[in-house]
Amino acid sequence: MRQPRGRAAAAAAPVAAEIRAALAALMGDPRKAKAFLAAIDEGTAEHLLSDWELWARPDQLPPAAAADGRPWTTWLVLGGRGAGKTRAGAEWVRGLALGRPPFADRPVGRIALVAETMSDVREVMVEGVSGLLAIHPASERPTFEPTRRRLVWPNGAVAQGFSAEDPESLRGPQFEAAWLDELAKWRRGEATFDMLQFGLRLGARPRQMVTTTPRPSALLRRLLADPATAVSRARTAQNAFHLAPAFLDTVLGRYGGTRLGRQELDGEIIDDRPDALWSRAALEAAREAEAPPLARVVVAVDPPASSRAGADACGIVAAGIDPAGALHVLADDSAAGLRPAQWAARAIALYRAREADAVVAEVNQGGEMVRAVLAEVDAGVPVVSVRATRGKYLRAEPVAALYEQGRVRHAGAFAALEDEMCDFGPDGLSSGRSPDRLDALVWAITHLALGPKAPVPRVRRF
């Protein structure tokens, strides 16, 4: 890289805090950022682009401490596909090898690079677009020695590559730091991770960085539960500056809100509860882009007992039934912290938007008050009162059976509702909270398919 000289060198000197802030703000507008880089001297642009602290998001820089307030041993970066995890990992290793704050106060001489395969080490961590060779200016760039599976910096720091397919290869070597990439997909993850820990024994503060798109695994849960772990999270959309707009539009439109999207784009760990009435896989199989023409539509309301902060939410779910008897969940408009007039207005707004035939309202908590509150908003809305005579689990079982029979579809993705469904077992939700969204769903489906049948007024399309 041609180094800036003269006035360009002055412009590329340590950037003042206010200038850093102004340039960092450009990341929110890719067009302005690219226009800025195009308008300045090539050498200055290269220098600025190599200044990772300038362009990095907060989640891509090392945390100050772990959850317990002490220095972290593991920095776990959970992110969606294309969220900038590899760049963050490579820049961390670069900062360690060169001894640059905030990464290190002196060069770290021995570093392990671990991926699922040696091909991944080379093609992603070392030679990739965001890999170690690409991010270094020429004057700092390490030499890659493929036959020895290592990088050597001009100052003598060495990063050695290892494959998670061969945990025993980590028996013997020792390190001050390690970068572990895509840990969640390692087939021999536990064995490789454990073997690496025995080798992290050099220096005053051995530490490791894990960059991965999450999947439910015992190893990830173990790291998340460790008080010496610091966690950073990033969604794919946060890295829009470096991604093709068409890619974001396509994947967010197709997968946004789905189980796969929440895992691969939002970086969430999506678990199934073993004794839950529903599973993620079953709900994904029940998903449809839009509902067909429907014969009847209802909005079910599960009112909260209180509107105070921290109280239960008001469950508000719309569902319909088609002429063939298949059921379709149309909307989840549940919300917490609503006063009676607010949740009533919200339910009736959904009733109108969906051209529903009735509002189905549980009256255990408020009796006639529930009907009266709804009537105050719109006295012309038909209200069907339902009262719970059995426990929530017993009421939900017949509805879950309809899902198993393939009779219920979800016209879209309803992340919060589906989280409750997949966490609802014989003892309720694992959090101990009330399953308000699920209650509303159960009342809607029960009324449409398992309760008294109202006349079919007309067929409509959504």
What does this structure look like?
The protein has helices spanning 6-11, 17-25, 30-39, 42-49, 52-55, 85-98, 118-126, 132-135, 189-199, 218-225, 245-255, 259-264, 280-285, 340-353, 368-377, 392-404, 415-421, 436-450; strands spanning 74-79, 110-115, 143-145, 150-152, 158-163, 177-181, 207-212, 229-234, 287-288, 296-302, 315-321, 327-332, 358-362, 383-386, 408-411, 424-425, 428-429. The protein has 18 helices and 17 strands. Mean pLDDT is 85; it is low at 1-16 and 454-462. The strands form three sheets. The chain has an eight-stranded mixed sheet, sandwiched between helices. A hairpin with a 5-residue loop joins strand 11 (315-321) and strand 12 (327-332). The chain has three domains: 1-55, no CATH class; 58-242, P-loop containing nucleotide triphosphate hydrolases (Rossmann fold, 3-Layer(aba) Sandwich); 280-450, Nucleotidyltransferase, domain 5, CATH 3.30.420. With 462 residues, the protein is of the alpha/beta class. Helix 14 packs across helix 15 (368-377) and helix 16 crosses helix 18. It starts with 5 loop residues before the first helix and ends in a 12-residue tail after the last helix. The longest helix has 15 residues, at 436-450.
